[in-house]
Amino acid sequence: MPTAPTVAPFRTASTEELKHYRTETVKLLSLASLSGFPQITLPLGKVHGAQYGISILGKPYTDELLIQLAKMVLKLEK
User: Fold this and answer.
1) I need a surface site. Which of 22, 24, 70, 75 has the fewest CB within 10 A?
2) Contact 53, 41 (CB under 8 A)
3) In this structure, are residues 43 and 53 in contact, taking their beta carbons and an 8 Å threshold?
4) Chain centroid to CA 35: how far?
5) End-to-end CA distance of the chain, in Å?
6) What confidence tens digit (pLDDT) does each residue in 7-28 have?
7) CA 22 to centroid of chain Cα atoms
8) What one-character-per-residue DSSP string does 13-77 give?
9) Strand 39-47 versus strand 50-57 pairing type
């Protein structure tokens, strides 16, 4: 699943734009913490200078497995 709803807002973004971005990001990230599912976010690269990544969710109590998976994905990236 995506880590964020879109690319990060510009530093010059208005307070309203930042509030909207935070609200949409929390919707994506709070699913795991509210349900007890472990979640890890991985950076995957950059597009036009902006970083992007993914979040991976695991079943409850599979934290170690999720970390191992993340390490494997990052090795493939290199």
Assistant:
1) 75
2) yes
3) yes
4) 16
5) 21
6) 888 889 999 999 999 999 998 8
7) 13
8) --HHHHHHHHHHHHHHHHHHHHHT--EEEEEEEEETTEEEEEEEE--TT-HHHHHHHHHHHHHHH
9) antiparallel
